[in-house]
Structure formats: structure tokens, C-alpha cells
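Study the following:
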Amino acid sequence: MPKLQTGTVIVGYYATKIRRALFAQNRELLKTGQLEASEVARAAGELNQKLYTALVEKLVLSKGDIVRVEIEYTVENSKIIWNFDSLKVGVYRRVDPDTVEAALKAIRQEKLQVEANG
């Protein structure tokens, strides 16, 4: 069973990545006419719509957050069928740069105190 894997990608780009990866994985079937480009586009749209609901509406991810999507699928009768039971999504939230800088500043100050006392 083929598996679509996006790798790590920002939320603002995952839909394009899924579409491109699905077309690339099925290029031979497209060349031989066993699969139509419109079917690949339809299947990518179906998956992207469901992921949008989960990622943007339910998890409230921003475009700068990162996701990794994996899902198995089959091609039957010139149709792509997603195996949603195999769907795996990794989510990595972007931390505000000010929050990161505050944490780093605290570490720097601790180091200075240790050096001064040592």
C-alpha cells in the first residue's frame, strides 16, 4: 500500500506539499492513463480539506507552525482511496521569539552568577 509522507512542512504550505507529493508518487499511473490528473487533484483536495479542519479549526495552528503528515492509500478502479485509520500527523508549534529570548536571557544571567561565585 503506498504511503504519502510530507516530511516537515509549515502549515501554510502543507496543502501544496500534499498535492505535489501525490502527483509525484503517481506519475507512472498518470503516464499510462490508469489514473487521471483530475482524480489526483480530487483526492489531494479531499485530504487537504479534512486536515484543514483538524489543523486550523480544531488545533488553531498558525501558518508558521510545522506539521508532518503520513497516510496510506490505495488506487482502485482509477480512484484514490485514503486509509484514514493510518493517518498520522505530527504538530510542532512555533514559539514567539520574545518568549525564546526571555528564556535565553535567564540562562545567560544564571551563567554569569555561577562564574561570579566560582
User: Anything to note?
Assistant: The chain has one domain: 3-117. The two ends are 61 Å apart (CA to CA). The longest strand covers residues 79-92.
